[in-house]
Amino acid sequence: MSQQALRLAAAGEVEAARSRLNAVLVRPLPTESRRFLTFHSAKLEANSGDPASALA
After folding, report:
1. pLDDT tens across 13-38, in order?
2. Beta-strand (E) ranges in the chain?
3. Helix ranges restricted to H, 1-56
4. What are the residues whose beta carbons fall under 8 Å from the beta carbon of 38, sequence distance 6 or more?
5. Statement: the pTM of the whole predicted model exceeds 0.85
């Protein structure tokens, strides 16, 4: 999922990437999976020009 989101963002589809990550993050996940996806969500925000959101 994280790779799909990062590829979407690289193609300029930042909102679609956010939607995919957020849809997965609302599900119950193992701790490590949640951390991994949260990291990629922050990376997406930082790379798309929203560093404040990435830090949050």
Report:
1. 989 998 999 999 999 999 999 999 99
2. none
3. 2-10, 14-25, 31-47, 51-55
4. 25
5. no
